[in-house]
Structure formats: structure tokens, C-alpha cells
Design goal:
- Strand 16 and strand 17 form a beta hairpin.
- The chain is elongated.
- The chain is an alpha/beta fold.
- It has a 7-stranded mixed sheet, with helices on both faces. The protein has a 4-stranded antiparallel sheet with strand order 5-4-7-8.
- Helix 2 runs antiparallel to helix 3, helix 5 runs antiparallel to helix 6 and helix 6 packs antiparallel against helix 8.
- 53% of the residues lie in helices and 14% in strands.
- The two termini are 50 Å apart.
């Protein structure tokens, strides 16, 4: 399992989890005690002598009820606070594992990684507490009934064995379904990505059935994912129904075939417990499904297929960045030879597919490249340069607080800088920084997501900022705000923007145009054409 670096000690991190488990068990014990005492109260009422104090049992039942309510709310409060902490810690562990690495598997998107980390983080509240509570209570109940030789204890043991058999049966099936769910979900993400990338030819999809032509656009479908999810629910429900049917059958057998010695007032406890068992024990079947998802997520995160990127030390620009016959390796794009200023705003234009995004990633060191990079006359080896940040076209928003999204690596970032950057980008609606966004939180529009990711890069104070289509999908007001912020950043930072949208408010100092025949660099400061065709 992934272990977080520089995280809290194991004792400190597990203490709330154990407290959640104890509170959950107390909640279950209180509920079962209400059932047992009520059963005893019904039995004793049949033979109680005149003058029997009925107030004491009633007070005891009420006390157990209050204890059950208090422990239930306390378990939820402690458990969910522990869950939020564990999600953050587990995600930081995943981030540290992915540091200086690149994911090669498309299916493992941010959404998929978020899902897996949530499954790992929620183990205590999702399946450990429910399963432990039920198993402890059931075992204690059977052992206690055996010690006092309660009539019908053999029937209670039979129900317990049936419960264990059904749990094992469902667990085996749930593990298989969890694996299938992960596979189908990954296929759906890949298909969806390909489908969205082919948006320009969506109108051709009606030609799929003509003749023997192959499918031009494969429409993504989540039917397989939904089917597996439905099977998960059905299997848990089936286990619960079979257990309930077994409980009712045993009660019928008790009433039909029990000896006369069985029919004493105290014997009513066993049938009452058996009839109520499906209510307090059926949660274990749902917990088993959660356990299966946990195991699958743990395997997925342990088997992350990453390609390491060589990390280079910081190269602060003082004079210029020179690219010589430079291009992304294996990409059909022209090689670029040009010099870029240490500060200022550079735009990279060209037709779609000409290699703008690949060029930016190669400059940052995310993609292998050919040619050379020189900083102030010094050659930079292949690798990822620290403080050279590439912001991809598709915004990545984490399910978490705004502060977590702006500082996912838990660096020393000033919160006042975060707030002022959000205000400058017109994102005051996302304040305060504790606002939860993403899954289970405030949904963000495409423009909000793009500006939030831009703010994340700016508060990191990069030496070189490479932006891929930062204006796409933004309205005129949002474009104006982004331009103002980029103009301000370019005073002390080299900002390189690859975009087919160049607002006139952007203070561009250098233009690079990529064409199939070569590249051309134009300086706006009256230096004329600096580059030439490759």
C-alpha cells in the first residue's frame, strides 16, 4: 500500500480511526442491548409478581437508546473528520509517487486516481467498522447465550454459521465484480477521451453502418460500468435477503419443532434476536462490497505504470532561453531555432495539430526532445526543469477545497496570495479557500476550472510558465482578467502561451508561428524577424 511521505505518525493517524471503530461498536452494542432487554422485559412481564417495578427496565431501555443515538452521531462526526484527513494524506502520497514521473496509462485520469484514493481512505468508516461491529456482536451473542445455556442457542449458532457462509460467498463474487468495474471504467474513460477528441467529425457517425466500412466514431457507453455497479448492489441485496430468509426459517422451525421445555418466558429472547438480525447484520453485506473496491483500488495504485522523468535543478533565466533545432521527439512538427527573452510574453501559433502543445511540453521537459536548450549560454540536459511549469489545455480540478487545489503539493504558499489571485481572475465566488469543489462539492464551469488551474500555476511563482490554450472557453471579461494577470506576471517571468486565440489586450513581446514548412519568430520590439524557416 502507498505510504505517505512526511505524514503524521502511525499512532496519531490511526487514533481517530480506532475511536471511530469503538464508537461504532458501542452504537451496535447499545442497539442489541435494547433488543435483549426488551425481549427479557416481555418475557418477565408474563410471570412478574404483583409489585414488580416496571420503571427500572423502562429506564434502562431509554438509557441504551440515548447511548445508541449519542454514539451513532459521535461515530459519524469522528469518522468523517478522519476520512477527510485520510483523503488528503493519501492523495499527497500518490502525488509524491508521481513526482517527476509521467502516467503512461490514459485510463488513470485525475478522476480515477481520486476515486481510488477515496476508496483507500474510507476503509475504516466504509467496511472495517461495520464488519467488525457485526462480527464482534454476533460472536459475543452466541458465546454469551451458550454460557448461560439460553434455550435455542443452537439455532442462534446455526444462523451465525449461515451468516459467515453468505459473507464469504458474497466477498468472492464482489472481488471479481470490483475488478470488472475497474476494467470497464478504464475502457469508458479511454473511449470518451477519443470520442471528445474527435468532436470535429461527430457528424459522420451516422455513416458507421454503411457497407463494410469500419466505425469512424465509436460512441462511448457506460452500460458495462452501470451493469457491474447494478450487479454489486444486487449481490449485496441477495446476501441480505438470503440471510433474512434463513432467520425467518429458523424461527418457524423453532415454533414448529421445539420441545415443550423450550417454551419458557426467557426463551423469547432467541426468536426476537433472530428476527431482528437482518436489520443489524445486513450492513455487513454492503461493507463486503466496499472491501472489494478497496482491494481493487489498492492494487491499481500499487501498479501505477509511470515513466520517470529526470529532475533538473532550477535554471533561473537572466538573459535568454535559446532553442536550437528543437522539437519534441517522435512528433511530426518542425524544428525550432530561436531565442526567447528572460522575461516577457511569448505566443506560439499555428494550425491545429502543428505541434504547439508538444513544443511546450518539450520545453518544460515533460516530453523527450531533440535539439538543444540553452539558458544564458549553458546547455540544459534532457529532463524536467524545476520551476518551469506547463499548464495543460484540459483543466485538472481535484475533489477538495480551493486551498488544496491551489496548493496540492502542500508547499509553503501564502494564503493571501491565493485569495488575491482568485480575485484578480474574477473567482471571488470560490472564496473562502475552504470551499469544497469537485465531486461532492460545488460544481465548476469550464471557464472557472481553467482559471482555477491558472491561479494554481501563478501562486507557485514559476521561472518559466508555459500555458496551453488558456483563453479557450472564456468569455470576454474572463479573457480580460487573464490577460491582465499574464501581463503582470510577464514583467518578471517568461510566459509562453500556445493558443489560437490571442486577445489584443495581451502584451506580446515575441510571436512564434509553426507551419508545415518551418517556423518563424517575430519580435514585437522592432528587432524584426529573428528566426528563420527550419
Amino acid at each position: 500500500m502507498i505510504k505517505p511521505k512526511n505524514g503524521p505518525s502511525s499512532d496519531a493517524s490511526t487514533r481517530p480511526a480506532y475511536l471511530t471503530l469503538l464508537l461504532a461498536m458501542l452504537h451496535a452494542v447499545a442497539g442489541l442491548s435494547i433488543l435483549v432487554v426488551s425481549s427479557w422485559f416481555i418475557a418477565i412481564s408474563a410471570i412478574a409478581p404483583i409489585g414488580f417495578n416496571y420503571v427500572i427496565p423502562a429506564v434502562v431501555i431509554r438509557a441504551f437508546a440515548l447511548l445508541r443515538i449519542a454514539s451513532g452521531y459521535a461515530s459519524m462526526w469522528v469518522g468523517h473528520n478522519d476520512l477527510l484527513t485520510r483523503i488528503a494524506t493519501t492523495r499527497l502520497a500518490v502525488f509524491s509517487q508521481l513526482t517527476n514521473s509521467r502516467l503512461d496509462e490514459k485510463a488513470l485520469t485525475t478522476e480515477a486516481l481520486a476515486h481510488h484514493t477515496e476508496e483507500l481512505a474510507s476503509k475504516w468508516i466504509a467496511w472495517i467498522s461495520p464488519l467488525s461491529s457485526v462480527l464482534l456482536l454476533f460472536t459475543s451473542l452466541c458465546v454469551g447465550a451458550s454460557l448461560v445455556m439460553l434455550p435455542g442457542v443452537n439455532v442462534l449458532w446455526a444462523l451465525y454459521v449461515s451468516f459467515l457462509v453468505l459473507i464469504v460467498w458474497q466477498g468472492v463474487g464482489a472481488l471479481t465484480l470490483a475488478k470488472a468495474h475497474t476494467q470497464h471504467a478504464g475502457q469508458f474513460r479511454d473511449t470518451s477521451s477519443e470520442f471528445l477528441n474527435a468532436s470535429a467529425i461527430w457528424h459522420l457517425k451516422h455513416k458507421v453502418q454503411q457497407g463494410n466500412a469500419s466505425t469512424l466514431v465509436k460512441t462511448p457507453s457506460a452500460n458495462d460500468v452501470w451493469k457491474v455497479q447494478s450487479l454489486h448492489k444486487q449481490k449485496a441485496q441477495t446476501g441480505g435477503w438470503l440471510f433474512q430468509g434463513m432467520a425467518f426459517l429458523l424461527v418457524v422451525l423453532i415454533c414448529a419443532f421445539a420441545s415443550p421445555a423450550f417454551f419458557v418466558p426467557i426463551a423469547v429472547v432467541v426468536p426476537m434476536v433472530i428476527l431482528a438480525a437482518p436489520e443489524w447484520a445486513s450492513g455487513a453485506f454492503i461493507a463486503i462490497s466496499k472491501y472489494a473496491h478497496y482491494q481493487q483500488s489498492k492494487k491499481a495504485l500499487q501498479a501505477l505504470n509511470t515513466r520517470p522523468l529526470h529532475q533538473l535543478t532550477t535554471f533561473p533565466l537572466r538573459e535568454e532561453l535559446v532553442l536550437t533545432a528543437f522539437k519534441a521527439e517522435g512528433r511530426t512538427m518542425p524544428a525550432l531555432t530561436t531565442s526567447l527573452p528572460a522575461v516577457g510574453l511569448v505566443t506560439v501559433g499555428g494550425e491545429s495539430g502543428c505541434g504547439k502543445s508538444s513544443l511546450l511540453q518539450a520545453i518544460a521537459g515533460l516530453l523527450p526532445s531533440t535539439g538543444a536548450r540553452h539558458v544564458d549560454g549553458n546547455v540544459i540536459n534532457a529532463g524536467l526543469v524545476d520551476k518551469w511549469l506547463y499548464v495543460e489545455q484540459t483543466p485538472i480540478v481535484l475533489s477538495g477545497s480551493i486551498a488544496l487545489n491551489l496548493n496540492p503539493a502542500n508547499d509553503d504558499v501564502n494564503k493571501d496570495d491565493m485569495t488575491s489571485c482568485l480575485r484578480a481572475l474574477g473567482l471571488t465566488s470560490l472564496l473562502p479557500l475552504t470551499t469544497w469543489v469537485g465531486k461532492g462539492g460545488r460544481p465548476l464551469s469550464g471557464g472557472e476550472s481553467k482559471r482555477l488551474v491558472l491561479a494554481r500555476s501563478l501562486v507557485a511563482k514559476p521561472h518559466v510558465l508555459l500555458l496551453d490554450e488558456p483563453f479557450e472557453g472564456l468569455d470576454s471579461v474572463s479573457q480580460h482578467n487573464v490577460c491582465e494577470l499574464l501581463n503582470k506576471a510577464s514583467v518578471h517571468t517568461l510566459v509562453i502561451v500556445a493558443s489560437h486565440i490571442i486577445p489584443h489586450r495581451l502584451n506580446v513581446s515575441t510571436e512564434i508561428v509553426l507551419t508545415p514548412r518551418g517556423t518563424m519568430t517575430t519580435r514585437k520590439n522592432n528587432e524584426g524577424i529573428k528566426g528563420a524557416k527550419a
